[in-house]
Design brief:
Helix content is about 25%, strand content about 20%. It has about 240 residues and is an alpha/beta fold. It has a single domain (about 1-230), classed as Metal-dependent hydrolases (TIM Barrel, Alpha-Beta Barrel). The strands form two sheets. The chain has an eight-stranded mixed sheet with strand order 9-8-7-4-3-2-1-10. It has a two-stranded antiparallel ribbon with strand order 5-6. The chain is globular, with a radius of gyration of 16 Å.
């Protein structure tokens, strides 16, 4: 199965406004994806719409989550197999965002939409900032809800584990490491990432045309989240 595990919708302030869950799902099918994950910055507000969309598209499965910015300013992809767990986690993350409002003129709009692309609300919280949650508190919360945590774009010079900490933390209970599209040779990163941490590739798509530009292929018994977790451990 082909999986793209990091896609941003119009709710991410840096995401294109055309990236509704419906258009994301249709683009993913056209790119040959079997499984996608919606991971807006510090919010799961558009996950319910994605849940409704995917129900109507045979052959496509969605996981639900968010790309959380930790207090160390590290991006962590937090994924769940069910939308309710994702939404609950999103509310938890929102309560740990700074008490500041988004400036749409500067950062961009943050629309929450339904499955038919209707805007039903705007998120006023400043999603582009960092939470006050540490890596350990994020991973603990995600794992308590049977989710997984992927260290996002670990090769990048900002908002990555290596950029912020200089090395992989020994006490971090992280399930996988993501390499950005900039990496053409994984050799260096395999030396820096612990042997027991699987490496994944995601599109980190903020535009429809970027969906599926990077993905992973896993042998899975089914597209269920539990089967994904088992297959991930075999990488």
């Amino acid at each position: 199965m082909h999986l793209d595990l990091q896609i941003h919708s119009c709710l991410s302030p840096c995401g294109a406004l055309e990236c509704s869950p419906k258009k994301i799902a249709l683009a993913a099918i056209n790119k040959g994806m079997d499984i996608i994950a919606l991971t807006d910055h510090n919010t799961t507000g558009n996950c319910p719409a994605m849940f409704d969309v995917v129900k109507e598209i045979p052959g496509l499965t969605a996981y639900f989550g968010t790309e959380v910015t930790s207090s160390e300013e590290i991006h962590l992809i937090c994924l769940f197999g069910d939308v309710d767990s994702a939404v609950e986690f999103g509310e938890f993350v929102k309560s740990h965002l700074p008490n500041k409002k988004n400036n749409p003129d500067y950062f961009g709009d943050q629309p929450i939409v339904d499955a038919n692309e209707n805007i039903i609300d705007f998120e006023n919280a400043l999603l582009i900032g960092s939470t006050d949650l540490s890596i350990s508190s994020i991973t603990e919360k995600v794992h308590s809800k049977n989710g997984i945590v992927i260290a996002s774009h670990v090769d990048r010079p900002i908002n990555s584990i290596f950029a912020q900490l200089g090395l992989w933390p020994d006490d971090a209970v992280i399930d996988a490491a993501d390499l950005s599209i900039n990496v053409t040779d994984e050799t260096k990163w395999k030396m820096l990432i612990p042997d027991n941490i699987p490496i994944v590739r995601t599109s980190d798509a903020h535009f429809l045309e970027d969906i599926g530009r990077q993905y992973i292929t896993l042998e899975m018994n089914s597209p269920k989240f539990e089967d994904f977790k088992k297959a991930l451990q075999q990488l």
